[in-house]
Amino acid sequence: MKVFRMAAVLALLAGPAYAQQMPNINLMQDAPSKTDDEKAADAERDRKYKDTLKKIPDAKASNDPWGGMRSDPPKAAPPAAAKSTAAKKTKTGATTN
């Protein structure tokens, strides 16, 4: 029984190694080369596409009022608040002995 188990383990380990040695077969046929007219049409289409991309305006900053409440850190730190000179208030109802 041990021999059967060992043979099964060796067969499972040899499978990926055998697959690497198989010949590389290309099932896709090569496409015929493009004519000069087709190449010129493609170049014109690409040029028009790039010109159109240049016309798109830049995206504006998000107007999200809850943006600072998310886990992402804020982009700009707010200015430090001025300390108030008011006297400290004590708790009411507290007794000291």
Question: How would you characterize the overall build of this protein?
Answer:
It contains 2 helices and no strands. The chain is mainly alpha-helical and 97 residues long. It is flat and about 85 Å long. The mean pLDDT is 76.
Fill in the keyword field for this structure.
97 residues, 2 helices, 0% strand, mainly alpha
Give the integer mean of the pLDDT values.
Answer: 76
Shape: flat
Low-confidence sequence ranges? none
In DSSP terms, counting alpha (H) and pi (I) runs of 4 or more, how many helices?
2
Question: How much helical structure, as a percent, in the residues?
Answer: 40-55%
| Major sheet attributes | none
Q: How many strands appear in the DSSP assignment?
A: 0
Which class of secondary structure composition applies to the elements?
Answer: mainly alpha
| Secondary-structure element string | HH
Distance from N terminus to C terminus (CA atoms, Å) equals 86 Å
- Kindly provide the radius of gyration, computed on alpha-carbon positions and rounded to a whole number of angstroms: 36 Å
The fraction of residues in strands falls at: under 5%
Write the layout of secondary structure elements.
Elements (H helix, E strand, L loop, with lengths): L1 H19 L15 H20 L42
Summarize the structure.
This protein is 40% helix and 0% strand.
